[in-house]
Specification:
The chain is an all-alpha fold. The chain is built from twelve helices and two strands. It has one domain (about 1-250).
C-alpha cells in the first residue's frame, strides 16, 4: 500500500515540478491552442494558450512504473498502448498548430489507428492472457465468457474511451478532473481484487491528472491537447480491459458516456431534421456554458456527477 501511495505522490510532484519548464518551452516554440470558430465566444481568450501539456503524461507514467520495479504483461502492455495513443495525439496536435487546422488529423485516420491498437490488445487477451475473455458483470458474482468477441469489444472500449476523454477536454480542468476521479475509482477496485499492478497504474494516472490540474484549472495556463486526452483515455481503457472490467466502465465512466451520446444525438438529429438542434452546442458542457453557467460552475458540477458515477461503479464491482 505504501508503494501505491508513493506512486501517486511522486507522479503529482513530477507534474507540478516539471510542467512550468514545459510550459515555458511550449510558449517559446509558439505551440498555442487553436480555437474553433464555432465555439463559445468566451473561448476566444484561450487562443494561444500553450497546448500539448499532456506530452509529459506518458514519460511520467513510464518513470514511475519502471521505478516501482513491477514489470509484467499488464504494465508492459499498458505502457506500450498508452505510448502509441500519446504519439497519435501528438501528431494530431502538431497538425492543428503547424498546419493551422483546428481539427487536426482526419477523423477516419485516427479511428483506423485506434481500432488497430485496440484490436491488437483484444487479440492478446484472446490468445495469450488466461481468463482474458471473461468479463465481470456489474452487481453480480457471475462472469460472462466472450471468446473471440473480446477482440471487437476491446476495439470499442479503446475507441470509445479515448474519444470520450478527448470530447470532454473542452473546459479548463474538466477532462483532467474527470479522468482523475475515474482512475481513483479503478485504483480502489484494483485493490479490492488484490491487483497491485492495476492499483499502481491507476493511482499514477490519477496523480498525473491532479498535478496537471495545478496549472490547468481555470484560468488554464496550459492545455493537455489530444496528446494528453488520448493518453488518459487509453490508460483508463487499459485498466478495464486487462482486469476484465469492460462492462463496468459504462457505469464508472457514466459522465463520459453522456458527453459522447450528446454529440451523437446532436449529429443524428441535425441530419434528420435538416439543421435543427437539441442542444445549443455539443459536447454537452458547451450547452450549459451557452445556457448561462460560468465555466468553473460547469466543471465542478461535472466533477460531482463523475464522482457519483464512479461511486456507483465501485459499488457495482464489489
Amino acid at each position: 500500500m505504501s508503494r501505491i501511495i508513493a506512486a501517486g505522490l511522486i507522479t503529482s510532484g513530477l507534474m507540478v515540478g516539471f510542467l512550468p519548464l514545459w510550459i515555458y518551452y511550449l510558449k517559446k516554440m509558439q505551440l498555442g491552442q487553436r480555437i474553433r470558430q464555432d465555439g463559445p465566444e468566451s473561448h476566444r481568450l484561450k487562443e494561444g494558450v500553450p497546448t500539448m501539456g499532456g506530452a509529459l503524461f506518458w514519460p511520467v507514467l513510464l518513470v514511475v512504473t519502471l521505478g516501482a520495479g513491477q514489470l509484467n504483461s499488464f504494465v508492459v502492455g499498458t505502457i506500450l498502448i498508452t505510448g502509441a495513443f500519446t504519439l497519435l495525439g501528438f501528431q494530431d496536435d502538431f497538425f492543428k498548430i503547424k498546419k493551422d487546422r483546428s481539427l487536426g488529423l482526419k477523423a477516419r485516420h485516427k479511428i483506423v489507428f485506434m481500432a488497430i491498437l485496440g484490436g491488437a490488445v483484444g487479440f492478446y487477451l484472446f490468445q495469450f492472457q488466461s481468463g482474458g475473455t471473461t468479463l465481470l458483470l456489474p452487481w453480480s458474482a457471475a462472469d460472462i465468457e466472450l471468446g473471440w468477441l473480446i477482440i471487437p469489444l476491446t476495439v470499442l472500449v479503446y475507441l470509445g474511451t479515448a474519444n470520450a476523454v478527448n470530447l470532454t477536454d473542452g473546459l479548463d480542468g474538466l477532462a483532467a478532473g474527470v479522468s482523475a476521479i475515474i482512475l481513483l475509482g479503478l485504483t480502489v477496485l484494483s485493490l479490492f481484487y488484490g491487483n497491485e499492478t492495476g492499483a499502481l497504474l491507476g493511482i499514477s494516472g490519477a496523480g498525473i491528472c491532479l498535478g496537471f490540474l495545478w496549472y490547468n484549472c481555470h484560468p488554464a495556463r496550459v492545455f493537455m491537447g489530444d496528446t494528453g486526452s488520448l493518453m488518459l483515455g487509453s490508460l483508463i481503457a487499459s485498466l478495464v480491459v486487462f482486469q476484465q472490467l469492460s462492462f463496468l466502465l459504462l457505469i464508472l465512466g457514466g459522465l463520459l458516456v453522456i458527453i459522447t451520446l450528446s454529440v451523437i444525438i446532436q449529429v443524428i438529429y441535425f441530419r434528420l431534421t435538416g439543421g435543427r438542434r437539441i442542444f445549443k452546442m455539443t459536447p454537452l458542457h458547451h450547452h450549459f456554458e451557452l445556457s448561462g453557467w460560468a465555466e468553473p460552475q460547469v466543471v465542478i458540477r461535472f466533477w460531482l456527477v463523475a464522482a457519483l458515477f464512479t461511486l456507483l461503479g465501485i459499488w457495482g464491482g464489489l
